[in-house]
Request: fold
Amino acid sequence: MRIFSVKNVVMVGFGQITLLDLDTIDLSNLNRQFLFRKKDVKQSKALVAAKTASAFNPNVHITPLHGNIKEAQFDIAWFSQFDIVLNALDNLDARRHVNKMCLAANVPLVESGTAGYLGQVQPIIKDRTECFDCAPKPTPKSFPVCTIRSTPSQPIHCIVWAKSYLVPQLFGEDEESGGELDDAENKGENAQEIANLRKEAQAFKAVRAALRTPPSSEKPEASRLAFEKVFRTDILNLLSMSDMWRSRDPPVPLNFDDIRNGKFDLPSKPSKSKTNGTATTETTAKTNGSISNGSSSRSSASTSTETLVNGSSSKQASSSLKDQRELSLRESLEMFVSSTDRLAARLRAGEDTISFDKDDDDTLDFVTAAANLRSAAYGIPSKSRWEVKGR
Amino acid sequence: MIGSFGMRDSIVHTGSDQQTIYRLWAASGQSALESSRILMLSSSATSTAIMKNLVLPGIGHFTLLDSTTVQPADAGNNFFLNGFLSVGKSRAEEALPLLNELNDSVNGAAVVKSVEQVLETEEGREWIRSFTLVIAHNPLKGTLETLSRLLWEDPANPPLMVVRSAGFLADFYIQFHEHCIIEPHSETAPSLRLTKPFPALQQWADSLDYKAVDPTEHAHIPFVVILIKEADKWRAEHDGNFPKTSAEKDAFKARIRALQLKLDEENFEEAEAQAVRLWREVGVPSDISSLFSLSPLEDPPQAPSSQQAQHSPSHSVAANGVPRQQHNAIFHALLRTLEKFVADPEGSGCLPLTSTLPDMKTDTESYVKLQRLYKNRSREENARFKELLKVQYPDLQIDESLVDLFVKNAHHIKLLRGKRWGAWEEDRASVGSALEFMTRETATHLALSALSTLQSKGIDVTVGALTAEIQQYVGLGVELPGEVEVAVGEVARSPTADLPNTAAFLGGMIAQEAIKMITKQYVPVNGYCVVDLVDTWTGIVGQ
Reply:
């Protein structure tokens, strides 16, 4: 998008252009941003675009800058040097920032954006038009698919993943769930990542089949298959996309047997809190099958994740959880296995599909356990409240 | 430096990468796109901008037909030429390599000939007819008339997109006989059959006793069931009628509100909010039933040999025993079957049920139960539709998945009938009335038409000459509104400028319409779409 406007600005013959972009060129940019070639991948977008576009009009001077517009060096004085600023940003935060800076520097701003087939352009001139923040912008209600499916950073991401993705994938209808991914890429989410997620979805078929056939001693348990698929194979697969983890902490693949035998240790990072087999925190309060909305107290010495407390009344789990103790990684694993077994038994007993219901203990257990395991794999810190039921 | 510009060394347009961006129109649309062949008349800045946006998504083939050489003006505005190095060379041949580089899987060609030359021979005309779509940018008036008439001769000929631009003003038109759309990607929700519930659903509503369920269940009765039950009660007291007047509608909603046992029973709130469905839902919406009266277009009788060449066997259906070709025969067969389906005495008189339910406040058990009822019913109706199709068209070869798609989209299907390029202007009354009600759009369109006429006659483009020409179109007695003066002024100011910005804007817009035509998805513009980038608006006249 922004690249096309660079082309047009150059063709029309603006005299001096400063081009600023934080990003580097991704393989997936090539088929829609045509100032870039394959050899440019991983280079600064601003630098390459400036070089390519300059060729079209030698009278235009382009100054490329590879940086973040929110950096302190881009102050009001810096903004004041321009006659006009064109925004082609992809996030609300940066847009608001540039809006403020342009108002402060009294420089006209052309604000623009697209999503799928929709787009908008708005000129912003101080005291003459409304500004970007004059009309409240709706905060996005849903999470980006890639956040839920590949790069969670908050407990809620893991809960949404378990509830809206994993449960339907394993126990729901066998329908092509590509719609969500289609929408995501229409909104311009990372194409390579989405292709990867599509592959991942395919592999669910085998696990689905195992959950629906009677267990036998020759075959591995369905719950183990499910575990291996989502907490090991998928994570290894994601790790192979090294670009994704350059600016984030990579997830850690979980090991079924090691966790069961108490031998699994998550690598500890100073910046992260971890759940491990020896969690000693106090707990979130639990009342009769519901998880309290927050107000969890945490022990000062603890490094453990505030973990979902199971609200189940199922025979196996309830006794051990009566004291509202937080689950250890191992307990999460056991709960994952037992709830998967219970759900699989229900499928085999003739239930067509099972979807998440907060009043259905088996699914609540499953979601709780799966979300906990995923949080552990992603080293997700525990500052926010966990509400499985409420979400 | 300029000459070394390349879009991409080796392209990533393979496998899943390609698909990721173009899933907007699904595999079926992508495959239609990949097998399409586009003829582009001219290789101006606007033409190449359009082609850029068709090459990137991956059409099969394009030909640039252009006999002109690159002028300095082209070098300054056309991104796809090699700047001033291209001056004096064939414009089509110079533009081709950079367009080709955008996508390895697209096959492009440059033909250095004028359209006029090609139109002269039967071989040339046949060649033009062999494309999927023909796009022309700023063609000469006489040429356009010949071309549009040629392509209008037979509904099986390719659609023609005519793009005219001058400075910041432009318009475009798609000439087609008939365009059938099974997937318009409509946002409107299909009927839930609340006014004519199918037996299993009715049974649920009948068996529901508000008093017999416990408070939790009461708060989770799906709104669908509540509405059916309450509508039945209402109709029993009102001679079988649904609430009609606004007082009745309010009374009906008040009844639902009164059923709420506790304030937080959201399912009843939902029922109240959704009650509108009861007075809006009809068995067959009028925009669908109006299609039933359309008979298929018949291609003009021709020598059998050329007839064969133009149609695949699956498209040939004998109508009334006469071996003539029907245009869009399969769509019409499905449409006829749909008509039979709604008239079926054993059926409900409604369009086939879709199984997708909206979200609602209920418990899993009820939702799944409801889902199952809708799914089963829609399966039955789908089977019934196929039965009727089989009876009606026993020899029709049709992919079952296409029938499924049609049945699923029965609420949304569209059939557009178009007009020949220029036919609208021949209807003076229509143009006069448009000038009154769609003033700026009509004024701009007429100014572009006048420009084209003057250019073809070799008359100098002046405000006076343009205005006189427009006066001719609308009739000498008609007073021209001020908008004509504005449009004429702008056209006279820049009669021949092909600006990069206008070209880029048109490139996106026209490629998008071309994709709609090729994929037969989404609804294309039917009429003259007029673009004004001075005041930044678009509008459509001459539908």
Summary: Residues 1-23, 303-323 of chain B have pLDDT under 50 and may be disordered. The two ends of chain B are 48 Å apart (CA to CA). The first helix of chain B runs from residue 15 to 22. The first strand of chain B starts at residue 37 and ends at 41.
